[in-house]
Amino acid sequence: MKKNKNYQAITASSLKILALLLFLWSTTVSAQEKYQAPQLSSPDSWTMIMLPDPQTYVKFGRNQPIFELMTTWISENIDHLNIKMVICTGDLVEQNEMINPDGKAANQTSKQQWESVSNSFSQLDGRVPYITVAGNHDYGLKNIETRKTNFNAYFPVDKNLQNQKLLREVALNAEGTPTLENAAFEFTSPQGRKMLFISMEFAPRDTVIAWVKSVADLPKYKDHTVVLLTHSYLNAKNEHIVKENYPIENGNYGQAIFDKLVKPSTNIQLVFSGHIGAPDDFRAHVGFRTDINSADKKVQQMVFNAQALGGGWMGNGGDGWLRILEFMPDNKTVKVKTFSPFFAISPTTQEHAWRTADYDQFSFEID
Hints:
Protein name: 3',5'-cyclic AMP phosphodiesterase CpdA
Strand content: 15-25%
Domain Calcineurin-like phosphoesterase: 72-276
Pfam family, one: Metallophos
InterPro entries: Calcineurin-like_PHP, Metallo-depent_PP-like, STPP_CPPED1
Order of helices and strands: HEHHEHEHHEEEHEHEEEEEHEE
Largest sheet: 7 strands, mixed
GO molecular function, one term: hydrolase activity
Helix content: 25-40%
């Protein structure tokens, strides 16, 4: 009888262990089954992809393939997600003109960094238009000591034929050269909305602010939805950035850009920026706010970055995060989702490929 009780106890214990193993297995399978690859909510939607600051990807050789994975993922999903536009809001490199990286803060020269980010975007050349702006790290030696930049050498007008087809207006940069640092691209959405994407240099000069206003006010663009791309504009508290301490003169930051350009406009309705962040704090990299312009139209303003995620400033560059903006068939609703092709590439990490907090996944409307 005693032996039988022991046998029953052992059997009961074994069953509990087996049940636990089955539970863990089913949980793992369930987590894997929950992963859904990005897809359109409607077959009649179109998508714009927003890429964060690439600087931490390109400053280390080990990180550079992650950013190329991101642009390759975009290329592979152009048809599946009906991708019509890609934007990147600056700090393409960590240093614009450094020849002796210390191996700790960076192990790639500026030339290697510019070549890397340019090559990554080459995955999209001839396939889909993309608009990049120049951030503070894209100027000077290390961080906008001057307004001299190598931007035009690596992102000339003829790099991507799809960009060149849409290009309509160009302004002179600080060195008196017409470049895509300040440029306007005309685009018509599949639903027929006429849009004008305008890129602006970091902390745009007053002359650039005036140029953008003059372009947006041209009669031929009065019915267009103007989309403004700049680098420094919003902070993580959803506030316009008032001032930053960079050694350049005549620079306008978020509050000045809003007061001088966005609010007085009649057709600027979307503003996108990057620039902000803190080590491994996703909330510190994002922001969103809605204001009203002089024509009583909503201006939707979004900042998105990821460069200090994945290990901080010396980490992997940002865990591959990007934003998918789906423009719905009603011609006004935009659905925003935050996704990582880096995590999605392997079943082992796919459960981490989506961020679903209210500041990561939301919708807004365009008038």
